[in-house]
Design goal:
By secondary structure, this protein is α/β, with parallel strands linked by helices. It has two domains: 292 residues, UDP-N-acetylmuramoyl-L-alanine:D-glutamate ligase (3-Layer(aba) Sandwich); 127 residues, Protein-Tyrosine Phosphatase, Chain A (Alpha-Beta Complex), CATH 3.90.190. Helix content is 40%, strand content 18%. It is built from 15 helices and 17 strands. The strands form three sheets. An eight-stranded mixed beta sheet has the order 4-3-2-5-1-6-7-8, sandwiched between helices. Strands 12-13-17-14-15-16 form a six-stranded mixed beta sheet. Strands 9-10-11 form a three-stranded antiparallel beta sheet. α2 packs across α4, α3 crosses α9 and α3 packs across α10. It is globular.
Length: 433
């Protein structure tokens, strides 16, 4: 049994060696042994390739402003492991994590000795979150972010009030499939019978597949640009402004602090979800609460300004769609100096197609790596990129410091790639303030 937080977290991380094993059998068996804590909870399930964390953040702030207790399950973490499981934005207390780990440990060990096999790290973290929310903290609603894919993701044991799919693009192709149709099939797996779908997916194939899946399950679809829309979009130094239109009401002069047109889409998914819960489940969500919540919403590591003179921005763009959105945001907001990029990645990424949107706007790219099991070496990244003005440094600290020294006051230093990498760099940059 665990007596300290460090012991509990060390055990959780040791399960990383069990790899990724898509499937719900182990989760369902373990939840049954624990008395199905998930059945005591109300959920919103959020999937998609990009924008899940931001969408959850918008919803969380709106619900908190409306007086609700809100549980959130997100990944990966930026500052502390415990932030993945939070109540009203406060990470699970260390003593509660130890207590819950002591509850689930015997069940995990028992599963390991059956034909089900050893549960994975992510399965156990998901299990811990469901036990914490369902038998310790009891929030009014839980916003649950899909880990990988959807259909076979360990979070897909829940039955939500509404399902949200932000978009679908190319990521985790070694697991989800090599074409958009296969990936969409996996993402659509979170759509449940009779549970409405809210989506901001724009690709025609993706959207038609999502709608078809929803129709087969007698679920209504709310699609950006059709059932709900945004208009009067403008960008300022403070963020993005827009008007939101749903079948139930129009909300004018909405402001969000997170920057980029993709954040307007994420906010619109959150707003449509809140409107559905307000109209069909009677949640008390007033317009002023919505505006106050959205204005306070921030998500670390998403186009986050860390230092000035020069501006040093971190952004966890780790797939082609994420980098394309990042490039558009830069073009909108940085018209002046040169743009220097420091980049690192995990897994078998197609570096060329991922970084291509940045090529026309950046001065040079420095590849680096960091201490993580699946991190790619700086040299490998360098060799897989056709951009001519490039270099590499296996030490990310010296890579970041060198670029910050090289850049002038009017330039932009952009540090991007894996969210795990961004997490490490963010702590370092905060120490320089």
């Amino acid at each position: 049994m665990f007596t300290t937080y460090d012991e509990a977290v060390s055990w959780i991380h040791s399960l990383l060696n069990h790899g990724i094993k898509p499937g719900l059998e182990r989760m369902e068996w373990m939840l049954e042994q624990l008395g199905h804590p998930e059945r005591r909870l109300k959920f919103v399930h959020v999937g998609g390739t990009n924008g899940k964390g931001s969408t959850v953040t918008y919803m969380k702030h709106i619900l908190q402003e409306s007086g609700y207790e809100v549980g959130t399950f997100t990944s990966p973490y930026i500052e502390s492991f415990t932030e993945r499981i939070a109540l009203n934005g406060t990470p699970i207390p260390e003593r509660d994590l130890v207590e819950v780990c002591n509850r689930v440990y015997p069940i995990v060990e028992e599963a390991s000795n059956t034909s089900l096999g050893s549960p994975t790290e992510f399965e156990v973290i998901t299990l811990i979150s469901l036990v914490y929310f369902g038998s310790v903290s009891y929030p009014d609603i839980v916003l649950m972010e899909v880990g990988l894919g959807g259909r076979l993701d360990s979070t897909n044991v829940i039955h939500p009030l509404v399902s949200v799919i932000t978009n679908v693009g190319f990521d985790h192709m070694h697991i989800l499939g090599n074409d958009l149709e296969q990936i969409t099939f996996e993402k659509a797996g979170i759509i449940k019978s009779g549970v409405p779908l809210i989506t901001t997916a724009e690709n025609e194939l993706v959207r038609s597949m999502l709608v078809e899946t929803a129709e087969k399950k007698s679920s209504k679809s709310y699609k950006l640009g059709e059932e709900f829309k945004v208009s009067a979009i403008s960008s300022t130094d403070e963020g993005e402004h827009f008007t939101f239109h749903s079948p139930y009401r129009t909300l004018e002069d909405i402001q969000i602090e997170m920057k980029g047109s993709h954040q307007v889409k994420n906010a619109s998914a959150a707003l449509m979800t809140m409107e559905y819960l307000r109209v069909f489940y009677g949640l008390h969500i007033e317009e002023e609460m919505i505006k106050q919540g959205l204005s306070k919403a921030a998500w670390p590591g998403r186009f986050e300004l860390m230092l000035k003179d020069p501006d040093v921005v971190i952004d966890g763009a780790h797939n082609p769609e994420g980098v394309a959105s990042l490039a558009e945001t830069i073009k909108t907001r940085y018209q002046g100096g040169s743009i220097y990029v420091v980049f690192s990645a995990v897994g078998d990424k197609d570096i060329e197609s991922m970084l291509e949107p940045l090529y026309p706007i950046v001065k040079d790219i420095t590849f680096t790596t960091f201490d993580f099991p699946r991190a790619v070496s700086a040299r490998q990244l360098y060799e897989r990129c056709s951009f001519t003005r490039k270099s590499y440094d296996e030490n990310w600290t010296s890579a970041v410091q060198a670029i910050m020294t090289k850049a002038d006051k009017n330039d932009l230093v952009l540090i991007t790639g894996s969210l795990y990498f961004i997490s490490e760099v963010r702590s370092f940059l905060k120490s320089l303030k």
